Amino acid sequence: MPTPKATLIISVYNNIQFLKSILDSVNRQTYKDFEIIISEDAEHIHIKTFLEEYPFENPWLHLTQEDQGWRKNRALNRAILASSTDYLVFIDGDCLLHPKFMENHLYSAKENLVLGGKRLMLNEKLTDYFLKKPLNPSYINQYLFLNIFHLQKVNMRYAEEGFYINPQSLLGFTTKLRGLRNITGCNMSFSKKAIMDINGFDEDYTLPAIGEDIDLIWRFTQAGYKLGSVRNLAVQYHLYHKKNWVDQDINFQILKEKQMAGNFRCQNGIEKLL
After folding, report:
1. For residues 12 and 50, what is the distance between their CA atoms, to the nearest angstrom?
2. Residue 111's domain spans which residues?
């Protein structure tokens, strides 16, 4: 089963406790042939010190930039340019990975596909539990099976996304039935060629959300790429934290204007075309 060598790009800001747990889950991946880029939208010395002492099992690189507000898209474009491989996997600094996460992104990878997965939103209790102990996906599956009808009451959203399904098992066919309408920036992958074809992330977006995922998919589609799903294959567990959501009216207006202009290759991306 051929799998391309890849780069895992992790977007972070300022949470060492989360970052340690995420890197621990990265170290437990069944597929090992990838490099790691920690893309920090700031330049905190304590993050640098932590990373220099962490026992990485993969080649790694830490990129920083001056903290001037939300500039995640700029940080991601810099990470793309710094990557040394032809395939890129993107996650956020608040999501633990199932051990098969990288394996299944790469197993599903095709030249013309943009892959997207989902995430289980852990509640505060389970987040605290897995920050103190190693992530046990079997325990999570068991917990979900036993509590599936009650999880909304305890702030466990998207519980169905937390089940890992072995694609070689009797239930493997069900993963092919679960499509996607869009991608989520914390769980997506594509070739470097694909993102270069649309000139990377659009740095005109200076607020989180739409510019880091929704904006991408319409541009990928216009460039001739198709959306593929790794739901229940590349499983991800989102650590609970207070919401930092901002109003999306500005982002939606930017998106609308760009879609009306119809230029899938953004002007303010990896290359500055203005």
Report:
1. 13
2. 6-261
Is position 273 within any domain? no
The helices-and-strands tally (H runs, E runs) of the chain is: 9, 10
What is the tens place of the pLDDT at every residue in 146-178? 777 666 655 677 888 888 988 888 777 878 778
Residue 135 domain flag: yes
Q: What is the pLDDT of residue 274?
A: 66
Residue-level pLDDT at 2: 42
Cβ pair 104, 140 in contact under 8 A: no
Q: Give helix 214-222 / helix 249-261 axis angle, nearest 10°.
A: 10
Q: Is 270 part of any domain?
A: no
From CA 258, how far away is CA 163, in angstroms rounded? 37
Q: Which of 1, 2, 9 is nearest to 192 (CA)?
A: 9
Number of domains in the chain: 1
> At residue 157, what is the residue type?
R
- pLDDT, mean over the chain: 91
Asked whether residue 268 is domain-assigned, the answer is no
Q: What is the CATH number of the domain that holds 239?
A: 3.90.550.10
| 146-151: Cβ within 8 A, 24+ apart | 151/123
Does the pLDDT of residue 113 top 50, yes or no?
yes
Evaluate if residue 95 carries a pLDDT over 80: yes
d(CA 148, CA 167): 22
Helix, strand, coil % (nearest 5) of the chain? 40, 20, 45
Question: What distance in Å separates the CA atoms of residue 7 and residue 101, rounded to the nearest whole number?
Answer: 13
